[in-house]
Amino acid sequence: MMNEATIYELLRTHICERVQLTESEWAIVKAYYHFQSYKKHQFVLQEGQICKHILFVGNGVLRSYNSDEKGHEHTLQFAIRNWLITDIQSLVNSAPSKIFIEVLQDAGVLQIDVKHNDQMLKEVPKMETYFRLLSQNNMAATQQRLNSTITLTAEERYREFILRYPDIVQQVPQHMIASYLGLTPETLSRVRKQMAKK
Amino acid sequence: MMNEATIYELLRTHICERVQLTESEWAIVKAYYHFQSYKKHQFVLQEGQICKHILFVGNGVLRSYNSDEKGHEHTLQFAIRNWLITDIQSLVNSAPSKIFIEVLQDAGVLQIDVKHNDQMLKEVPKMETYFRLLSQNNMAATQQRLNSTITLTAEERYREFILRYPDIVQQVPQHMIASYLGLTPETLSRVRKQMAKK
DNA sequence: CGGAATCTTGAAAGTGTTCAAATCAAGTGG
DNA sequence: CCACTTGATTTGAACACTTTCAAGATTCCG
Question: Nearest Cβ partner of A68 from B68, B146, B151?
């Protein structure tokens, strides 16, 4: 388990890699985020609820997913150290969420409330740039993922996933990775068997 | 063909639906965008070039796509009236683009240069919010599309596309829609035949 | 009109899914 | 510490969907 001060330092680094904050700006920003710990199996957000927070993960593992009419889960994102997670659609539109955010491993996070976030953006406009950059990167990554999904075979996608997110592979169950890649657990199992033979 | 003044009005509306601009702010913003017309078959951006502009489409049709090692094209986006198009990855990182942006039908656009954009964001911070909102919406849409690609059959995806983008269906060749949906042209042709029978 | 691109159609092959069952792993309570 | 329960992974066989390759029909434009 990580201590609070260390997580604040992680956040600070994360922000300052993207925009330059003065000491006093950081002091303001810091005050808006508050520490929260979550236990495995807890839900940070459930379908139907209105998402109110943006989470910055210090330690632990979270994931977001939706559940289709057949009851199949589709993993949207995993979040480990230094990742943000939220339901941006629900957050910006104050609309009922269509997704779940679940804690896979006990986690320590810094979170900020939407209202506080709006307030913070006014006080520290650089944070607007920070969030815009994050959105844009996220967008680029999502497009990349879409492209892989369309272009590559199951095995190629899994290899790409391992290369890109080696830390996540260790920490989450295989069937969730399958659901991230758009495969059935059975298929991923066979793909791995296939790969092991080489 | 649309006249310039009308396109500026479209842009103004597009911005003001998202953030409130005063007259003087709009005057500043307006001055940064300049009108450009493109002919069918022109390339606004080619693979390897560094993307310098953000385009707001007044009329005509554009699309972005990438080309894989087998020479297959994958359509990332279509853009018609009131849409923005650019290569955000290349733009923000000043990196060589991996995509093409092609004009499918003679177009009139308003475009802004990256440097001017940075300048504009400083002068009119509300535009930072505007772009952040656009990024977030775009992200949500891309995630939705990813989800459909993973979850739905070819026919379901095509139906969804028709519902969501009825205007585009009319204006672009079928094989490009196939490449947007991640299908071969043959498959889309068969899907349509199948649907016609009902 | 003629050539090029686009769309359609067919048959065979490939890739991933489904359903069912077996195996394996981890955590719980006695 | 073992037996039991529950969840996760693996395996097999049949099936469904999409692609590939090849060829023919249609449409678009110069």
Answer: B151
